[in-house]
Design a protein that fits this description.
mainly alpha, Single alpha-helices involved in coiled-coils or other helix-helix interfaces, AhpD-like, 2 domains, 11 helices, globular
Length: about 220
């Protein structure tokens, strides 16, 4: 994907975000047609799978509260989230999560992963660089991170079409197994973004750039 097209896409995302935020009649309110379960109401297998996460965060994510009505599917999704990473470096996992969430304008996932990235020691400058969606212009990102983000941006924008040349570049750097892990992680966060938007789920925490988290 050439630099001009990538910048055009980033500009389009920014314009769309500004448009929706400025139109009060287009703002959605949380629907209660799918009730949100409390932690105590979760099926036992889901509660067990999420207990450590809930204790660490101090809250039950609304995504899980809404989707726990299909406990077997949700448990498989949780397991897939853990297994999909394989041996992929956590910096790349967070880069993929932040890239997809930024492109899809999903604050629920973006804001939480910003905080996780800071807690993991990657720093606010790194998060900001990832969210600018202009990897070819970044000096904070490593060559591997630039290559992976170029692929993810193009794949999400094109729904995976005509990305084989970029995937080959990733395979050369990461190897087959980790390149497949990258695809799996990207698929996970893309699917998650669609579900979150369908459910009108709001971010439980602000962006780190709105409250100086980790500054």
């Amino acid at each position: 994907m050439d630099c001009m097209r990538m910048r055009s896409y980033v500009n389009l995302v920014s314009k769309q975000s500004n448009y929706y935020s400025s139109k009060s009649n287009l703002r959605f309110t949380m629907t209660h047609s799918i009730p949100r379960l409390t932690f105590d109401e979760l099926p036992s297998e889901i509660a067990d799978a999420l207990r450590v996460k809930v204790e660490r965060l101090g809250y039950l994510g609304e995504f899980f509260a809404a989707t726990a009505h299909q406990p077997a599917a949700l448990k498989a999704f949780i397991d897939f989230t853990d297994e999909a990473k394989g041996e992929l470096d956590m910096r790349l996992v967070e880069l993929i999560a932040l890239t997809v969430a930024t492109m899809k304008r999903v604050a629920y996932e973006k804001n939480q992963h910003e905080r996780l990235a800071v807690r993991l020691g990657y720093g606010r400058d790194w998060v900001a660089a990832v969210e600018r969606l202009a990897p070819e212009a970044e000096t904070v990102l490593s060559a591997t991170e630039i290559c992976v983000q170029q692929f993810v941006i193009t794949a999400v924008m094109r729904d995976g079409a005509d990305t084989s040349h970029l995937l080959e570049a990733v395979v050369k750097i990461l190897g087959v197994a980790q390149a497949v892990a990258m695809l799996m992680v990207m698929g996970r966060y893309t699917t998650h973004a669609i579900l979150v938007k369908c459910l009108n789920i709001k971010a439980p925490v602000p962006s780190i750039f709105d409250d100086d988290f980790g500054a």
